[in-house]
Design goal:
This is Folate-binding protein YgfZ. By secondary structure, the protein is of the alpha+beta class. It contains 7 helices and 16 strands. The protein has 2 domains: 218 residues, Gyrase A, domain 2, CATH 3.30.1360; 73 residues, Elongation Factor Tu (Ef-tu), domain 3. Helix content is 17%, strand content 29%.
Length: 350
């Protein structure tokens, strides 16, 4: 039975019309003021309670998840929060889950369409591990804007300072308490959250990636410096880790997930999954499309590196890469430097 949040009964609440690759079914897309809800002057609450939350517990939970996922989880303390990926043997992204540890329980928060396949994958991998994998009835709520300590009866809290330029705190509460918690904040719809997600460069797997996507194509996913995202670059072996290590040490991904500025005068809005061309040649795939309150229509897109500075076309809609979305730090590529030194010979070190 399809999920429908109680907040859909609030005045002005409207769902995203029609089918979409964005995970949006069952929660308000906006409350009647889609652009005004993006202008955050105080903390606002976004209902994301349609998402799936799995609870993994037991004596072996930390080691079990650490062996399967891209984040280092075997030695984290209570209160730890990050994200993680499940990759296939070639390093392609299968699942993307936010992770929070509370009371020795590892909560995995992921898109609703991955509830069953990801839970099934985890259960098939249990073997002799002493773990329990349960589907919880927790609802995720995201608070955008500057937020201090919260005491709302939440099962877990995840903070992302500076996310999208506004900051974000995710909490999970029993779905029966969502209406009560919603009364503590002004409300904004999932459209506002999506606009800030595009600004942050955070992909949603079904909308923004494809069956060939690897982690380094979305720089937001890679741990860098103090930023703990989804891929730990110095942990032990897990499925797909060879691809991560090879790209990190020897080269760069052939594509990048970037933000696009779209021509707002186009008669129709391009759809997620549309082909992106440059000079008549296919160079990418369009992802999430949303209207930004200040910038107009924007999008995330996977684009070949060779076309990042080219004029782009999406079915007659002109587009260009927003330079601010290009990664500043893509690692030191130590392996590539070593190969170059070998090719140049001993005199290169003189």
């Amino acid at each position: 039975m399809a999920y429908a949040s109680e907040l859909l009964a609030f005045p002005g609440a409207q769902e995203l019309p029609g089918p979409s690759l964005i995970d949006a079914e069952g929660v308000p897309w906006h409350y009647g003021n889609p652009l005004g809800e993006q202008r955050i002057t105080e903390p606002v609450l976004v209902d994301r309670s349609h998402r799936a939350v799995l609870a993994v517990s037991g004596p072996d939970a930390a080691a079990f998840l650490n062996n399967l996922l891209s984040q280092k989880l075997d030695d984290v303390a209570d209160g730890f929060a990050a994200s993680s990926l499940d990759l296939d043997a070639q390093g392609r992204i299968l699942h993307h889950a936010d992770v929070a540890v509370a009371g020795s329980v590892y909560y995995l928060d992921l898109p609703s369409y991955h509830r069953e396949p990801f839970a099934d994958f985890l259960r098939k991998m249990v073997f002799w591990s002493d773990v329990s994998i349960e589907e919880s009835d927790l609802g995720v709520l995201s608070i955008l804007g500057p937020v201090g300590p919260l005491q709302l009866g939440q099962a877990f809290t995840r903070r992302l300072d500076g996310w999208g330029g506004v900051g974000r705190v995710d909490i999970a509460v029993p779905r029966a308490q969502i209406r009560e918690v919603a009364g503590e904040f002004p409300l904004a719809g999932l459209m506002a959250f999506t606009a800030y997600r595009v600004a942050a460069g955070e992909p949603e797997i079904r909308a923004d990636l494809d069956e060939k996507s690897i982690p380094h194509e979305a720089p937001y996913l890679i741990n860098r410096g103090e930023e703990i995202r989804a891929v730990h670059l110095a942990k032990g072996c897990y499925r797909g880790q060879e691809t991560v290590a090879r790209v990190e040490n020897l080269g760069r991904s052939p594509r990048l997930l970037v933000k696009l500025q779209l021509d707002g005068s186009a008669p129709t809005e391009p759809e997620i999954g549309a082909e992106i061309t440059a000079g008549g040649r296919k160079v990418g795939r369009l992802g999430t499309v949303v209207h930004d309150a200040d910038e107009g229509p924007v999008a995330l897109a996977l684009v070949k590196r060779s076309a990042l500075e080219a004029p782009l076309d999406i079915g007659g809609t002109a587009a260009s890469v927003d330079a601010s979305s290009l990664p500043v730090d893509e690692g030191e590529h130590a392996g590539r430097r070593a190969v170059d030194r070998l090719r140049r010979g001993p005199e290169s070190d003189a």
